Amino acid sequence: MPAVVVLGAQWGDEGKGKATDLLATTDPIDFVVRTSGGHNAGHTIVVNGEKFATHLLPSGILTPGATSVIANGVVVSPEALFRELDGLIERGVEVADLVVSANAHVIASYHSVIDKVTERFLGKNQIGTTGRGIGPAYSDKVGRIGIRVADLFDEGILREKLEAALDVRNHLLTKIYNRRAIEVDTVLEELLSYTDRLRPMVADTSLLLNNALDEGRTVLFEGAQATMLDVDHGTYPFVTSSNPVAGGVCVGSGVGPTRIDRVIGVIKAYTTRVGSGPFPTELFDEDGLELQRIGGEIGVSTGRTRRCGWYDAVVARYAARVNGLTEFFLTKLDVLDSWERIPVCVAYEVDGKRVEEMPMTQTEFHHATPIYEYFEGWKTDISGCRTFEDLPANAQTYVRALESISGAKIWGVGVGPGREQTIVVNG
Ligand code: IMP
Ligand code: MG
To answer: 353, exposed or middle or buried, with CB in 10 Å at 0-12, 13-18, 19+?
Structure first.
């Protein structure tokens, strides 16, 4: 199992950590790599019954022996990086090795100022971002006024680059948003305060990872955000500013597509979304509240309650296609234990027509209403099941039905939050 991608197939919070845990039970993982996003992610990791949340650090940070890598495609807030590391160290856990790409872009305090001000300016059109500066840092990157990790080690260059970046940003802040300008010296001082601690962690992570793969080591690319939040393939503009899809892993790490062996799409047995944007199977009734309550659907990063709805096979098929999924890992099946009858969206109706695939335009997607098929519930606590055959017949039927309409086989099923509450299907 040399190079494996684990990514979200819906709108995030699918429980990607469980798929990682299952992989680690059969193959020790040498590297855990993040390739996109920043400290907007929310991973919950349970170690020896204790709960830890990380936002920027890969989950591998709590796996002794695994090296955590923050690759070039990530936007790195040094402040968040060290806050998270120190938070873990304070709780007495053993923190694994961490390597940060010299080419990763830096999030400074002005990026989150701009993120929040922009959202306020958008009013009712706001994206519902996490406010952490992710979007502004990526727009600086593409606008070629970004600061990269390597720039922090050359004060002269850093000053020059900050002058260029803040010139543009301050025009925006003062003339459009009516805010105070941000001083170059303030940001310079802020960023230079991290350099001594950061320097030993910085490396050419593309070289590191390709060498590791040459040596037959196991590299896990850990997704953040998810397919439907992808800036190209998601529900634009209600998306994050990077490419969480499988292709983004290659761009974001400098590891070529021919080196990837498995692409696992993690998908919940129902659907959730935080922030704004279209969501065809969203529920506004008791069932929605029940999913939210039983599933504990509250954001790890923002504390916002998540919007909830039924499983959407159109989204699943789309995720299978745009990521080239080799398999799915279905999480939180146990959340559905109490339902009499479980609806599954198998297609949409768009402007009076049945469509089986993701509509071509966002306008059509906004008009899509779900066409449901109904499955008998199992009305049994399945949290103790450990093999597929342990599952009640109706739960087996539900899983097989999802598999047949979702575009890839189901490799594993999660039946509870614990690391061991997992069933391997097909093998
Ligand atoms: P941003 O990534 O902070 O720019 O936020 C853009 C959109 O992505 C918002 O709808 C966020 O709620 C959503 N988002 C960002 N990160 C995550 C995540 O890890 N899980 C779920 N949604 C996310
Ligand atoms: Mg999350």
So the answer is: exposed
